[in-house]
Amino acid sequence: MEEKLVQEIPRKSENLSQWYIEVIRRAELADYAPMKGMMVIRPAGYAIWENIQRLLDKRFKETGHTNAYFPLFIPESFLKKEAEHVEGFAPEVAWVTHGGDEELQERLAVRPTSESIICAMYSKWVHSWRDLPILINQWANVVRWEKVTRPFLRTTEFLWQEGHTVHATYEDAQEEVMRILYIYKEFIETELAIKIYAGRKSDKEKFAGALATYTVEALMPDGKALQAGTSHNLGQNFAKAFDIRFEDKDQKLKYAWQTSWGVSTRLVGATIMVHGDDDGLVIPPRVAPYQIVIVPIFKMKDKETVLPVAEKIKERLKENYRVVYDPREEYTPGWKFAEWEMRGVPLRIEIGPRDIKENSVVIVRRDTREKIKVSMDELEEKTAYFLDEIQKELFRRSEKFTEENTRKTEDYEEFKHIIEEKRGFVIAPWCGSQECEMKVKEDTKATIRLIPLEEGDVEGKKCMVCGKPARHLVYFARSY
Amino acid sequence: MEEKLVQEIPRKSENLSQWYIEVIRRAELADYAPMKGMMVIRPAGYAIWENIQRLLDKRFKETGHTNAYFPLFIPESFLKKEAEHVEGFAPEVAWVTHGGDEELQERLAVRPTSESIICAMYSKWVHSWRDLPILINQWANVVRWEKVTRPFLRTTEFLWQEGHTVHATYEDAQEEVMRILYIYKEFIETELAIKIYAGRKSDKEKFAGALATYTVEALMPDGKALQAGTSHNLGQNFAKAFDIRFEDKDQKLKYAWQTSWGVSTRLVGATIMVHGDDDGLVIPPRVAPYQIVIVPIFKMKDKETVLPVAEKIKERLKENYRVVYDPREEYTPGWKFAEWEMRGVPLRIEIGPRDIKENSVVIVRRDTREKIKVSMDELEEKTAYFLDEIQKELFRRSEKFTEENTRKTEDYEEFKHIIEEKRGFVIAPWCGSQECEMKVKEDTKATIRLIPLEEGDVEGKKCMVCGKPARHLVYFARSY
After folding, report:
1. How confident is the model over B90-102, as a mean pLDDT?
2. Distance to chain B for A416, nearest Cα, Å
């Protein structure tokens, strides 16, 4: 019966949505809370998020950022100060109206994002050019009242980091925006092994209140794009709304320039979706809750021989790796193999009586299923090697899939055909008008995911929709 | 003028409350948010919390706990399931009544603590003795609508960790409760250098819904006690309210036994209050945002000589320590000394032209103001030594102060006199009745902080209030 349970996951290739939901449940990454759209992140899922936090926080600190914590609640009047901002977020806000038995004089928004409360504080803290730059990040929960939800990818409450910086000049702010964009790209590619395209959003798709939004986009196995992180140049919009001014070196009073940027627990969802297979999760070693599972293989007569050796292996490896050791006697080795494969542990080490005689172990890769006999003397060396190889192989696959599913066309009929039949990213010429952008969305559900940072040559090219001269070659896709 | 700013802090010995507020503002640990009772934790304050998180989380993981994340919102009906629990918390709940434009069918509590939502999930997850124990912790924000607030010590929103565990037997649960209590005591004494008394709360003071609450209590410089953390044995109260049952090894269906336990950003407040002095903060090295400040001392002609040496010192030390380097030319060395002293950096390293000639530096301890000439060859060794000495010295002071202010009496008049004139802890015999407990509170504002784990001999002793035979020797104090 237990063998059967392992096989119960729908095939990823046949029904990605069902597979995704089922693998999250079976691998105990998350569970539905009894409130609409809310999720519990269980230990196996939270451990991935903790690894993401640790690895990303290190990068933020290395580039001069510090963490702080701002209030969960934002008075409605603050949210309303920046006109576009409130328009963008008000429909998804959860409102607190009572504290204890008292009705509040002004209702409080549960933060959907923190620009407005943070800017209110920055206006108190910023006086002089000496106070700049302010480079603050916050790890926090936010709430957006979503209609359609999916674990990790879109939930009413989610966890994220939000950076909020203040600068003396536009150039300094723009430099920060790009620094963070490249950190996101490098982080996701290196640690999550997911190929990233980075670029700028169209005006229609940018953050409510920003001058410009930059984005990192990844391709999911069903050919839909996923926005994995954004970095906004807020210009002086919030500085003007919240009166953030400083005396510059020339003794003139100037409005400050700001940025904000974030990634969320959505990255856990992307990691699950990109790398998993029909047998369950495949988690990149750098963020895997457990990187290695050790399964001793023994009949009762061999127990005293095998377990002490298996435990010694555990002791040797746990200094440098996250190791789980599974000597349970109520399950067969075969069941354990399937169980830990389903949970996505990158490397399995099997050790039985014959291995012990030969002073070796068997290492099994989760990504390729390759079984490798490794001498006990080379245990640490080979473990490091294969974990590194798995990380690289997962990225190679993601990169290959993404590149193979990034197509070019200048013909709108072909574009529609690709989006409908093959999906993926389609690079196409666009005149820059919102009309054409909207028409593509209505016709195909595809949106402009990004305008590339290094723009291609549009000389002589025409917008695939209206035929007017093209201003950009942009990446379209359907998206999550 | 800047020299004057440094001196502006009220004397700690003369007005602790004013000193506390002012040092938090001046050292930029926190700021008031524009909403009643809400606080912003600024980078210097948050860095202390991050160190607390890291050092405590390590201890939780070493004892088999994992982290998870449960929803911020709890339906009102869930909160009501455990009768005592809702009675205790309902008056301080912030209520969400609207999501976007819609009024909710059932209002949602912003979690004041998470027992009720977590137990709802545990009732789904627990089926068999094989599922036990569940040892989950959560790092999260919680909201309690407080009337009187004070930065870090009592705020409407605060950050904390809350552990929630499930066990098969009372004994297992009680063992967990005590394991955590000792972790808290050891952690606070080792890392925060604050002397702790650990014990059990009286029934009147226990957690709403618990069988028994255990507590770690510290003494503040004004002689008031501060509850620094609690560990609750929830018994089967929540298991019965939320139907958490498991099939035991004997195949009988049984209600599970539970614990919950937490410490909060209040610990940052305790650390500030206990160790600071008239010149500002004194932060224990283990949790200090910066452990060492390097101040190069130079006139313009020596700049090229001094700065490269100072930078080399920074490079040598920053591998193992959190170091700040302050070569700013717009401030005098004297101003910097005062500024970094106010910010509580445990160790200052001064390096000037004469030190360079002598191949040495001057190390200054924040706790004793001692200046020590150290050979450059012994830099790492001496730095480690003095940081360790400072940590120990701070604990010695806290321990001495706490012990000197822990008095015994069996006479109620003397008790009242001590509480009024000397404050501190007073150990006194108590009959165990709530009447006497209440009378002490009414007469003196002192409450029972704890019943010691190793109970003293009460043979022949009488309750200091009613004169009936004493059941316990308990620790009374006024408290925060």
Report:
1. 93
2. 35
